Amino acid sequence: MPTFYRVSDFARLAGVTVRTLQYYDRIDLLKPSATTEGNHRLYQRSDLLRLQQILTLKWMGFKLDHIKQMLDSPTYDLKTALLLQKTAIDQQIESLQVASEALERALSVDDIDSYSIDDAHLNQVIRAVMFPQQEWIRSAFTDEAWAGITTRRLQYTDADFQQFERDWRELTDKFAELQHLPADSEPVQALADTMHKYISLFSAGDSEAEEGVRQVWQNRQQMPSDYQMADEALLRFIQHAYEIYIKSEEP
Amino acid sequence: MPTFYRVSDFARLAGVTVRTLQYYDRIDLLKPSATTEGNHRLYQRSDLLRLQQILTLKWMGFKLDHIKQMLDSPTYDLKTALLLQKTAIDQQIESLQVASEALERALSVDDIDSYSIDDAHLNQVIRAVMFPQQEWIRSAFTDEAWAGITTRRLQYTDADFQQFERDWRELTDKFAELQHLPADSEPVQALADTMHKYISLFSAGDSEAEEGVRQVWQNRQQMPSDYQMADEALLRFIQHAYEIYIKSEEP
DNA sequence: CTTGAACCTAACCTTACGTCATACTGTAGG
DNA sequence: CCTACAGTATGACGTAAGGTTAGGTTCAAG
Which candidate from B14, B129, B206 shows the least CB-CB separation from A152? Predict the structure, then answer.
């Protein structure tokens, strides 16, 4: 003779709302173990265990349909699921931290004390937020090309940037391997083509932005040393090959 | 004679989807600066600046209607908004970190290597996740009362717990002030009543859970020293007052 | 003038419920 | 047994920020 709880009592017991229990019932996530003749839900304490599992997994960030799968299939790979979830959460934390730091920088912009907002202000904040110390890059672009670049930049995650860096390094490594060939030879030009496609991707078909990239590339002596690559001869080789490629594409 | 972009070009330029631009148009967040006779949207580069502002703020975690307010009212208090947003994000980070640590603990449960899931397994994981080292508390509760407590616990945020602690300290401080009065005097019993209401809140009307709380309270010598309060005399005073209160309520 | 790509709007889909609106059930008192 | 009235059930609509079709229209090249 088990004790039964009506919805509101059971809800209070578990710290959720009645609506939540009704919802979980409807999506077959948690069914009451009995009902009255009049179709009112009756829960037992044993239902509390299942609800505890559900709420714990939910608290960990799993979605309800995922939780249903986990609880309903006894062969579910829990360890992998937990691992994936932790990875996802850690990624979220990382990008939130980036945003938090950006907000911190935004708050440190002097003029913001005026407590008002106009385009100039806001853009100053945005510049402070997105590109803390890279004025030497910015100077190569027109205002509007720059707006395009910074805007597109927002779409990428940290993982994307890491991939970019890996790709870029791979590309320069390949150039290094072919450094003994003439810059206008076919394999080198093929690399230049790949490089061009990459730059196009970055500038998204924005010709002003592309021009800016070329400027940065050519004025690379101004780069802070952190950004400079070691092998100046290799850089000149790449630049030469790229110029040949561009000329051959724009007759 | 400004250059116009059609939606798809402008979308590519900015790195968003066409649907997003259509949506921003509909909610009056970003209108194209012109349209064709056939009602196709035409954007200019100057629209890109506004879109950049929108996406930057969005990336910071602001909601779109909030962004609209910010951009449309020139007297908007940007600094406060940024500050509030940073606070909110930092809170999110904190609770995600708690979840991440919990998942870490869950992954360190030995038996999980079996790559399967059943109630016992899952509950073991849950226990590891939610209550790392407090077996001394758990031992005072029945399994089901414990399930209720851990489940309710999920509903609370860090801020709630901090509030709990503050309330609790305030309560004990008040007891300390009245320590010169007899335990059955009216002001002391009033405090005991407050304390009882507080415990009831914690146990959500769960009588088994309440009993467990009383057990923990009485066996407080087993607590690790971190949890012990300094003044043992005060504790005995509180316990005495509380016992008198309970007896007077359950005749 | 035709064709195919790009574009338009409208409408439904997603999550995890909250919030009504309306109808029904359970129970205590008379 | 009847009536209040509290509790409950079901269904519909709303949320945020678009994604995803569906079906019709416009653009630009040939």
Answer: B14
Determine the Cα–Cα distance for residues B103 and A156; give it in Å rounded to an integer: 27
Give me the CA A189–C1' C2 separation in Å, rounded. Answer: 41
From B210's Cα to the closest Cα of chain A, the distance in A is 12
pLDDT at B26: 95
- Report chain A's mean pLDDT, rounded to a whole number: 78
> Residue A42 in 3-state DSSP?
strand
Q: How many of the other CB atoms lie within 10 Å of CB of A129? A: 23
pLDDT for A84: 86
User: Higher pLDDT residue, B130 or B107?
Assistant: B107
Q: Count the neighbouring beta carbons within 10 Å of the beta carbon of residue B79.
A: 18
A206 Cβ under 8 Å from any chain B Cβ: yes
Residue A44 forms contact with B (CB below 8 Å): no
B118 touches chain A (CB under 8 A): yes
Q: Would you state the torsion angle of the CA atoms of residues B116, B121, B126, B132, taken in this order, to the nearest 10 degrees?
A: -120
Strand A34-35 to B5-6 pairing = unpaired
List phi, psi (to 5°) of A73: -110, 120
Nucleotide C6: nearest residue by CA–C1'? B8
Q: Give the pLDDT confidence of B15-71 residue by residue, as tens digits.
A: 899 999 999 999 999 999 999 999 999 999 889 888 988 988 898 889 999 999 988
Tell how far CA A191 is from the center of its chain.
28
**Separation of CA A19 and C1' D7 in angstroms?**
13
Quick check: A204 and B12 CB within 8 A?
Answer: yes
Nucleotides of C under 7 A from a protein CB: 6-9, 15-19, 24-26
Asked if A93 is an interface residue toward chain B (Cβ–Cβ < 8 A), one would say yes
Confidence category of residue A238, pLDDT binned at 50, 70, 90? confident
- In total, chain A counts a number of residues equal to 251
Looking at residue B161, its amino acid is F
Cβ of B205 near strand D (distance < 7 A): no
pLDDT digits (tens, 9 = 90+) for B85-124: 899 899 889 888 888 888 887 787 655 544 444 555 555 6
pLDDT tens, position by position, A156-204 = 666 666 777 777 778 888 888 888 888 889 999 998 888 877 777 666 6
Distance B152 CA to C20 C1' (A): 27
Q: Mean per-residue pLDDT for A227-237?
A: 68
3-state secondary structure string, A98-152?
HHHHHHHHHHCCHHHHHCCCCHHHHHHHHHHHHCCCCHHHHCCCCHHHHHHHHHH
